[in-house]
Amino acid sequence: MKINGIAYRSIWRPSDDAKSIRIFDQTRFPWEVEVLELRDVGAVAHAIRSMQVRGAPLIGAVAAYGLVFALQNDASDAALEKAAADLIETRPTAINLRWAIERMVTRLRALTPAERVEAGYVEADAICDEDVQVNEAIGRHGLDLIREIWERKGKTGRVNLLTHCNAGWIATVDWGTALAPIYMAHDEGIPVHVWVDETRPRNQGSLLTAWELGSHGVAHTVIADNAGGHYMQAGDVDMVIVGTDRVTAQGDVANKIGTYLKALAAKDNNVPFWVALPSSTIDWRVRDGVKEIPIEERSQNEVLFMTGLTDNGAPGRVRIAPDNSPAANPAFDVTPARLVTGLITERGRCDASEEGLKGLFPDGQ
Ligand code: MRU
């Protein structure tokens, strides 16, 4: 996608410095577009933990290069296993991270240590290229849904969508998952409008999704997280579409904290609730998402402080709770499959159920 008319991916390997990667520092958006250079595994682990990079598919791609960086001085089996374990534990909920690392380890373990670094770059590049293709396919399948709504409305007014968190191009290598169909609908001339949940505590909605949509010219309105149900009751939401960090074999969906409440409100108001995901987000090893998906608990400071643009025009942080009040900060929640209208994958749409997923992915992959 483009920033000021220039096409970017959210991660790239510069041709004149191919042993490093570049990412955008997502803690600086939307006020600054700052490119970070990463060239060692420690910097990669820090970028993932601190959410300079974030979004399930993107952290998988970045971690893949992190593994290669770790092997530059020591490409032994022991070094490979240790770096893999260290990277996997940086963020526990998004399964794409483990998926990417396991794919890399499987590929590299079969080679001699001397061959591993070069082959690692090739494999990490492939993970990135495939992510772009997969998201484009998700976009096309989701676009069909938006087109159906537009036709059902007699091609009058606008199609109102609601999204939570950021599942756009900066959460993936390009296109995004939940936002890909929205970009495609907009490009096709369908008048879409997006209700953007601010997504407390880190405000990925108001800081990132609003910035992405605005940069692409997509009409949108930022709303407080608690406003979505109100707009659904008023008939102002045609469809909810979100991304996900992990989908279980029976179709339960882990996503940014607050997604579950949106699904409950959607159910009560007969608003379709769709989840867009690449197949690398399916964790075939778990079934009951509420019981089995580990939920990342992040620093209480993310709740107690807010970051924004201050009156003097510079980004700053303010405390929003009394000095002695503690906070809790679960970063994700689980929406049970029964609340999900369907899943949009690179292979098409399916029910959020074991049968639905197996219909599209018979081999469980
Ligand atoms: O904590 P984050 O910002 O990494 O959480 C991101 C999300 O919850 C996204 O919705 C999810 O990763 C899907 S991104 C295509």
Automatic annotation (TrEMBL):
InterPro entries in the record: IF-2B-related (IPR000649), IF-M1Pi (IPR005251), IF_2B-like_C (IPR042529), Initiation_fac_2B_a/b/d (IPR011559), M1Pi_N (IPR027363), NagB/RpiA_transferase-like (IPR037171)
What residues does the record give for site: Transition state stabilizer? 165
Q: This protein's superkingdom?
A: Bacteria
The UniProt entry annotates the active site at 245 (proton donor)
Pathways involved: Amino-acid biosynthesis; L-methionine biosynthesis via salvage pathway; L-methionine from S-methyl-5-thio-alpha-D-ribose 1-phosphate: step 1/6
Reaction equation(s) it catalyzes: 5-(methylsulfanyl)-alpha-D-ribose 1-phosphate = 5-(methylsulfanyl)-D-ribulose 1-phosphate; 5-deoxy-alpha-D-ribose 1-phosphate = 5-deoxy-D-ribulose 1-phosphate
Gene Ontology molecular function, alphabetical = S-methyl-5-thioribose-1-phosphate isomerase activity
Q: What class of enzyme is it?
A: isomerase
What keywords is this UniProt entry annotated with? Amino-acid biosynthesis, Isomerase, Methionine biosynthesis
Q: Where does substrate bind?
A: 54-56, 91, 204, 255-256
Task: List, alphabetically, the Pfam families matched.
Answer: IF-2B
Q: Which GO terms describe its biological process?
A: L-methionine salvage from methylthioadenosine
The EC number(s) attached to this protein equal 5.3.1.23
Outline what the protein does. Answer: Catalyzes the interconversion of methylthioribose-1-phosphate (MTR-1-P) into methylthioribulose-1-phosphate (MTRu-1-P). Also catalyzes the interconversion of 5-deoxyribose 1-phosphate and 5-deoxyribulose 1-phosphate. Part of a bifunctional DHAP-shunt salvage pathway for SAM by-products.
In the record, the note on similarity to other proteins reads: Belongs to the EIF-2B alpha/beta/delta subunits family. MtnA subfamily.
What name appears for this protein in its UniProt entry? Methylthioribose-1-phosphate isomerase
Q: What organism does the record attribute this protein to?
A: Gluconobacter cerinus
**Which gene does this sequence derive from?**
mtnA
